[in-house]
Fold this sequence. Notes:
Layout: H1 2-19, E1 23-28, H2 40-57, E2 63-69, E3 75-83, H3 90-95, H4 114-125, E4 128-133, E5 140-147
Parallel strand pairs: 1-2
Antiparallel strand pairs: 2-3, 3-5, 4-5
Helix pairs in contact: 1-2, 2-4
Amino acid sequence: xxxxxxxxxxxxxxxxxxxxxxxxxxxxxxxxxxxxxxxxxxxxxxxxxxxxxxxxxxxxxxxxxxxxxxxxxxxxxxxxxxxxxxxxxxxxxxxxxxxxxxxxxxxxxxxxxxxxxxxxxxxxxxxxxxxxxxxxxxxxxxxxxxxxxxx
Length: 151
């Protein structure tokens, strides 16, 4: 089941956050099956990329939250990952998803392909992505939804 894959992916990455004294919170609605609507392996890859970024860019002692919710009036399911990191400027947000784009000045290593992968998965699976500032913890907020209709 996808909810179990999401939980497993998040749990595998959580020790890295705990090593940095981050608080990792996960809330997954396990009552909504989404397997009929998405490729489970792609959703697992999407979660791994988003959680990896959230943990990587959240400072020591920061917070990362993952929520996965079932059916609402406008979506079949929704995944939200938020962190208390520095967030991104408008110009950085506009470049997010470009292959090899990395925010300068961060001390983190990586190839800059994570967001490109996330964007490609969302396009393939017809998912909507909204990236902005977290109202809950102040850093980056990434919301992925599977809309009820494609229109």
